[in-house]
Amino acid sequence: MINLLFDQPLDRPRVAVVTSTYARSQDDHQVPWMREMTRRTAPGLPDLEIFAAGFRGLKSHQIDGIPVRRFRYAPARWEALTHDEGAPSKSRSLSYKLLTIPYLLCGMLSIFYWCIVNRTTVLHVHWPFPHGLWALLPKWFLGIKVVSMCHGAELALARKSKPIRWALTFFLKQSDAIRANSSHTAAEIKRLTGLDAEIIPYGATIQETPAPPAATTAEEKVPLLLFCGRLIQRKGIDVLLHALPQVLAKREVRLVITGEGDRKAEWQALSTELGLDDKVEFAGFVSNERLGSLYQECDLYVHPAIHDDQGDTEGLGVVLIEALACRKPVVASAVGGIVDVIIDGETGLLVPEKDPKALSKAILTVLADQDLSGKLGEQGHDHARRFFDWDRCAQLTLQSYHDLSHNEPAATRHTLPA
């Protein structure tokens, strides 16, 4: 190994976050949880930078005062391999397959060059398959420490393909630290690769002051159900739409669905087919201010996630944490990392995935019982404050960088409830 950074002091690491996707402007909604973690850790990492894939010719820029370095891998009109949809959704397209090789090669060479120029000492690699490839040259030739962060999508691919599983295992073994966003993701890493991972989740801003009561009484107000997220298969909105007529047979409700994605048109058509157009609003992307208002206005947050055709599901479910932070009761599917956030009967109600009947029953149970709704909201808030407060999550991340810079062994502590 040739260490070109031998004189770089390790008490203040120069961290570069490596990702396929990042906000393209101040108003962009891409990976908001990653952006918030970056913003929260930046004061303790004055040299922090983002290394991200280009998008339709987008040049390097700044977001929240943090440099975002974009690498090019194709002519601008074809440069849409990342952003807007999840990788499992895009991987079905021919263009995705054709652009993968230039994407990986250009990313590897660009990041190696940037690491030399910027004297990077720690690479924090998100989705280590395939992006672990980008860390190999900096690791082998520059002595840079590598943190590999798994979110779940790469594990879904590894479950279906032995070559991908082998590659993921190889990349993780080259890492100095392995992280997971939930206990589910950590368990999958262990099952597929035999390797241990430190669990550092993403979080939410926890409100200590209860929201003011609504102007209308419970009897006058039509209950509002809310879903927030990308409109992709694993979010399971079709399950919620099929459950809604069963709810409406018992009581009036409204449903607001925020976000965009490749399933939006299909689900809008399903809503029309089910006669729900006057009950369901597809709100598209909304501002942070509007989203905050929706969390406060809603009576119940619903998250009907499923395992998609690729086997991918929710690695954690940050929107669930945001709902709990606002003292809102939650009904969600018992899949993936959701079970770290929602403890059935304590911080929300869990139902089997792809089961409209069970989902409608749980929704009606919460709406019919104000005491239960209030209890779930308060206990959920306490749970979120204890385990998912942004300050805590950011401090855990900074501490892990500090440990790595001082050559301390990677932690295996469990930062979520056992």
UniProtKB/TrEMBL annotation:
<dbReference type="InterPro" id="IPR050194">
    <property type="entry name" value="Glycosyltransferase_grp1"/>
</dbReference>
<feature type="domain" description="Glycosyl transferase family 1">
    <location>
        <begin position="216"/>
        <end position="380"/>
    </location>
</feature>
<dbReference type="Pfam" id="PF00534">
    <property type="entry name" value="Glycos_transf_1"/>
</dbReference>
<dbReference type="InterPro" id="IPR028098">
    <property type="entry name" value="Glyco_trans_4-like_N"/>
</dbReference>
<protein>
    <submittedName>
        <fullName>Glycosyltransferase family 4 protein</fullName>
    </submittedName>
</protein>
<dbReference type="GO" id="GO:0016757">
    <property type="term" value="F:glycosyltransferase activity"/>
</dbReference>
<feature type="domain" description="Glycosyltransferase subfamily 4-like N-terminal">
    <location>
        <begin position="119"/>
        <end position="203"/>
    </location>
</feature>
<dbReference type="InterPro" id="IPR001296">
    <property type="entry name" value="Glyco_trans_1"/>
</dbReference>
<dbReference type="Pfam" id="PF13439">
    <property type="entry name" value="Glyco_transf_4"/>
</dbReference>
